Amino acid sequence: MRNIHYIPVTGTILNLAAGSDCCSQMMTLRTESGIVNFIIGPDTLIIDQRQLRQGMRVTAFYDGNMPVPLIYPPQYRALVAAALRRDEQVLISFFDRNLLSADQSLKLNIGRNTQITTGNGQRFPCNVGNRTLFVSYTATTRSIPPQTTPERIVVLC
Questions:
Q1: What Å distances lie between residue 124 and 23, 54, 69, 121, 157, CA to CA?
Q2: What sign has the CA pseudo-torsion 51, 53, 59, 64?
Q3: Taking the model in full, what pTM does it have?
Q4: Tens digits of per-residue pLDDT, 100-145?
Q5: N or C: which end of the chain has fewer CB within 10 A?
């Protein structure tokens, strides 16, 4: 199985245009670093299946291990995209059995109100440890590593 290195890019959607076929779109984001384009294809997981619209704040994730064309603005194929709510932060990482992210930047504390689903929105009844997770949260502790009780977790099976 191929190891995917999820790289996040957060910005505001400037434009959504039809792609080269009827099944894809080109999403242009304004980020703090400038303009970035993403190809949203039929295999892109859109969290909560929300309709993406101009003006939305989103985070798109691409595979940092894949080659990309050397063009400006940069263009990536989105693996996962999520529309963000106010003050929401998101992360995709492998979390070990102790729910510590692979880069040790975040520790999860599962709460009673944490929604845990699969990519297609179905309830996930198993342990989320030792899996790649999309995590949505708003606040973290100032400890090392920071800890959070996520609002939702999507298990990327």
A1: 29, 32, 37, 9, 10
A2: positive
A3: 0.93
A4: 999 999 999 999 999 999 999 999 999 999 999 999 999 999 999 9
A5: N
